[in-house]
Structure formats: structure tokens, C-alpha cells
Amino acid sequence: MDIRNFFFKNRSFTPIPVALSIIYFAQPDNPNVLIGLAVLLLGEATRMWSVSYAGGETRTTKVGAPSLCTAGPYGFVRNPIYVGNMLMYLGIVIVAGSPNLALMCITTMTFFIIQYSLIISLEEEKLSELFGEEYSIYKNNVRSIIPRLSRWKTDDDRTPLSFGKLIKTEKRTLQNVVFILSLIIIRINYLY
What is the pLDDT of residue 57? Predict the structure, then answer.
């Protein structure tokens, strides 16, 4: 089995060990909570903006896409959902604190960079197969993870999801964030 498929199909579960280590090393006297919350909210906003354009198809366990999305945040970066996820986890690390916050941030980001590099390579193979030259042009103009400063011009004029549909699609992600933050609060306040 291709390890990339494993990470793609299990991408909701593979971060569990990272989340558990964040919770385990959480510190009660953390002066960076507000910074962490800001980074977390920026990540969730990026993720929601991205999902509003890509739709619920992002929750699939099958690699592919019904169409090539280049609108909205996809005009700045090819994988804005992954960028949002990394920012969310970085924010959670900062909120939780750690005896060595820099090491916890580096460890968390290293995990996600490795996981998303594997997943992105798999997705790009499929998107090249599905969309050929159209995807090649997009790939040559929009970077994978590091956003452009200006939006790439595209003919993709799709309308983003309504706020109600977006919240319904993102419900599980929002629940997971609340759950992890709740575990951090319990760890800090009751298990020290």
C-alpha cells in the first residue's frame, strides 16, 4: 500500500498522537494564550474560506475532485485547507503552552509538513490526470503551501457556500477544536 494513501484516507486521525502530546505537555502558566487564539482563529478562518469554495468534497476518502477549484483562496495557494489546518494546530500548541514551546511548535509543524507533503503529491498526481494542461498551468502559477501576495487571475467564478451550509460542512472540525481546547483546560486546571 502506498503510504500516501494511508495518510490521505486517515488524515483526520493521524494527528491524534500530536494532539495527545500537546495536551500532555500543556502548561498552566502560559502568557501566550491570546496569541495562540489569534493564530487558531486565523487558521479556522482560512479553512472556512477554503471550504466555502471547495465544498463538502474536501471530506472524501477518495482522491480526486469533480472540478478544479481556482477561485477564492485557491487563487493564492493551491492547498489553503492544509495551510488553515497547520495554523489551527500551531494556534492550539501556543494556547496550550509547553515546557519547550519552540520544540513543540517545530515538532507539530514537522509532522504536518511531512503528512501534507505526502498527501499533496498523491493529490497532484490525480489532479494532473483529471485536468491535464489546466492543472499544469494552475500549478505553475500558484504555489502549493506558501501563498502568493496577489491572487492569480482565473476564470473560475464559482459562488462560495452560504454561511449555513459552510457551518454544516465544518461542524466536525469546529467540534474537534472545542474538544481539544476542553481537554487542554481540563489538563491545566484539574490534572496538575
Answer: 65
